[in-house]
């Protein structure tokens, strides 16, 4: 079956693939032994590839990777090799809060909706409960509401929020109701309105567009409800599209199209008059989610093997391209596609991946798994995610770790590397830019530097000491010389005075005395 899908992907669309290559100038980095150096960290880079210059490469700075040895993060971890390794973009899950919910094998929770700082959760016995959400704690209200809707073993009520009329619809196989989104269920003013939802064998999903509600009801087609005279009323049932009966498993849409996942026909792309534009053939599809023209579909093979499929839709020429398959990794239950990542929901473990990147551009990817047994629903709340399982509520934080290079060493070394950073063109998943750059990194030993610095400091200290004593000696010599000069000048002045006195007295004085 996978081979047939691959053939279909070739037949369906032949996209124009383009990888622009740009060579940047060589650069040099310095680092310190026993410390990690982070290089080429960029949130918009979807992949980074690293080669180390091999011994046979005599051209140190050329940009071809033929004479370089490819470095892989996982291999280096297993071998305990240091130096430089590439780290691919990762999505790290952090659990902030966790709260157990009362349930058993027959009574369990089915859906979740976030209203500002309140989470409404509902069980298959139509018990409605409210949880106040904060980053520090979950607070479960004492009051709960039991909805007057008959339940059975297959009951699976779901929420649908209409932010225009401030109503939250609760839809199930046995009908439905609506509640106000601005009143807590514990307040006296809280009220419940009965709504005209039809009884069906099963209800899979519901979608709201311009005050019109579309409900996927399996082989009973799609029920359509709209507002007439201010009240929600049943409008019609869509049992067939393009003369083929529906088995609607999931439904969603956007401003131009409504998307219906049929169990046998695949993904149907229609206008809002249910005129089909084109179809993506997928057998036994169960759930899908999308962001813009990137779609993820959960399906089952003829051998009962779950798989997930990433599809690019082209609404200009009504074509599609099967981009990537996820199979034999886990059992898939549902999928959620957000702007920056996709969460593949399993039964025990769940995987976070990048999306909207042409698969042949991807050489390496990170395995970002997290465990949350029996998780049914995910809803974004501020910068966090609230997850609901059949018996638990959790507050999760998803942090993105950018692709980068980590360099470390326990000794001195100097090596040259070739790095390739990949960036996606925002207009098309088939166009990317690859930036090549050769860099040299030099690790220096701070201990050696410290010994050299200590020696230099000692020499400098000795020179300062020597200069200090030379200055003192010079000052002492200067003082002695100055004192001698002063004494000589005093003696000279005394002799000069004596000579002058002898001249004034004359030679006759000695004779008269005789």
TrEMBL record:
<keyword id="KW-0812">Transmembrane</keyword>
<keyword id="KW-1133">Transmembrane helix</keyword>
<protein>
    <recommendedName>
        <fullName>Transmembrane protein</fullName>
    </recommendedName>
</protein>
<keyword id="KW-0472">Membrane</keyword>
<feature type="transmembrane region" description="Helical">
    <location>
        <begin position="454"/>
        <end position="478"/>
    </location>
</feature>
């Amino acid at each position: 079956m996978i081979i047939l899908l691959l053939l279909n992907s070739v037949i369906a669309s032949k996209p124009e693939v383009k990888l622009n290559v740009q060579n940047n100038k060589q650069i040099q980095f310095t680092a310190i032994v026993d410390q990690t150096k982070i290089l080429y960290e960029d949130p918009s880079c979807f992949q980074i590839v690293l080669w180390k210059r091999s011994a046979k490469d005599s051209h140190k700075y050329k940009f071809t990777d033929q004479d370089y040895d490819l470095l892989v993060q996982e291999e280096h971890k297993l071998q305990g090799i240091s130096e430089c390794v590439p780290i691919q973009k990762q999505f790290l899950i952090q659990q902030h809060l966790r709260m157990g919910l009362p349930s058993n094998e027959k009574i369990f929770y089915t859906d979740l909706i976030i209203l500002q700082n309140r989470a409404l959760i509902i069980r298959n016995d139509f018990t409605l409960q409210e949880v106040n959400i904060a980053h520090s704690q979950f607070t479960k209200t004492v009051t709960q509401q039991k909805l007057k809707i008959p339940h059975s073993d297959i009951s699976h009520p779901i929420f649908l929020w209409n932010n225009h009329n401030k109503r939250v619809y609760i839809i199930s196989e046995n009908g439905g109701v609506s509640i106000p989104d601005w009143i807590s269920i514990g307040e006296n003013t809280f009220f419940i309105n009965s709504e005209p939802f039809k009884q069906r064998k099963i209800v899979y999903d519901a979608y709201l567009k311009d005050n019109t509600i579309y409900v996927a009801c399996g082989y009973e087609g799609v029920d359509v409800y709209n507002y007439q005279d201010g009240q929600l009323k049943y409008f019609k049932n869509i049992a067939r599209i393009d003369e083929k009966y529906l088995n609607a498993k999931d439904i969603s849409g956007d401003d131009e199209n409504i998307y219906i996942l049929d169990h046998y026909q695949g993904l149907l792309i229609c206008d809002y008059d249910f005129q089909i534009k084109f179809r993506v053939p997928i057998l036994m599809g169960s759930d899908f989610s999308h962001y813009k023209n990137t779609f993820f579909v959960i399906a089952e093979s003829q051998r009962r093997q779950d798989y997930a499929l990433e599809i690019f839709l082209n609404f200009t020429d009504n074509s599609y391209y099967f981009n990537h398959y996820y199979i034999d990794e886990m059992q898939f239950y549902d999928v959620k596609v957000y702007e920056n990542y996709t969460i593949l929901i399993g039964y025990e473990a769940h995987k976070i991946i990048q999306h909207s990147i042409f698969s042949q551009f991807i050489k390496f990817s990170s395995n970002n798994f997290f465990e949350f047994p029996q998780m049914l629903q995910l809803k974004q709340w501020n910068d966090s995610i609230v997850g609901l399982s059949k018996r638990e509520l959790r507050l999760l934080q998803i942090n993105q770790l950018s692709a980068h290079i980590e360099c470390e060493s326990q000794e001195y070394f100097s090596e040259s590397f070739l790095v390739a950073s990949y960036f996606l063109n925002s207009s098309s998943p088939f166009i990317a830019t690859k930036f090549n750059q050769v860099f040299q990194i030099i690790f220096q030993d701070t201990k050696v530097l410290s010994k050299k610095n200590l020696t230099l400091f000692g020499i400098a200290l000795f020179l300062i000491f020597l200069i200090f004593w030379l200055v003192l000696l010079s000052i002492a010599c200067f003082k002695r010389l100055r004192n001698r000069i002063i004494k000589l000048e005093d003696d000279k002045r005394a002799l000069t005075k004596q000579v002058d006195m002898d001249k004034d007295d004359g030679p006759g004085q000695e004779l008269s005395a005789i």
